[in-house]
Amino acid sequence: MTQITTEETRPSEMTLFIIRQIARQYKSVKINNNYQFNYLN
């Protein structure tokens, strides 16, 4: 898959690492057409 972003607009590796860590700790569940977010610790 080709990426069309330039080096100047690409986030740093540390930013991507932090985003991945946060994404792993949260889980969303859809209940009655509403999303509920749960923190997994």
Please render the helix and strand layout as text.
Layout: H1 13-25, E1 26-31, E2 34-39
Antiparallel strand pairs: 1-2
Percent helix, as a range, is 25-40%
* Gyration radius from CA atoms, angstroms: 15 Å
Q: Largest sheet, if any?
A: 2 strands, antiparallel
- Summed up, the helix count is 1
Strand order of the largest sheet: 1-2
Mean pLDDT: 77
Structural class by helix and strand composition: alpha+beta
Q: Count all strands and give the number.
A: 2
Strand content: 25-35%
Enumerate the spans where pLDDT stays under 50 for 5 or more consecutive residues: none
Span between termini:
33 Å
Overall, the morphology is elongated
User: What is the succession of H and E elements?
Assistant: HEE
Explain what this protein looks like in three dimensions:
Helix content is 32%, strand content 29%. It has one helix and two strands, in the order H-E-E. With 41 residues, the chain is α+β, with helices and mostly antiparallel strands. The chain has a two-stranded antiparallel ribbon.
Question: Which descriptors would you attach to this protein?
Answer:
41 residues; alpha+beta; two-stranded antiparallel ribbon
Q: What's this model, at a glance?
A:
This protein has 41 residues and is α+β, with helices and mostly antiparallel strands. It has one helix spanning 13-25; strands spanning 26-31, 34-39.
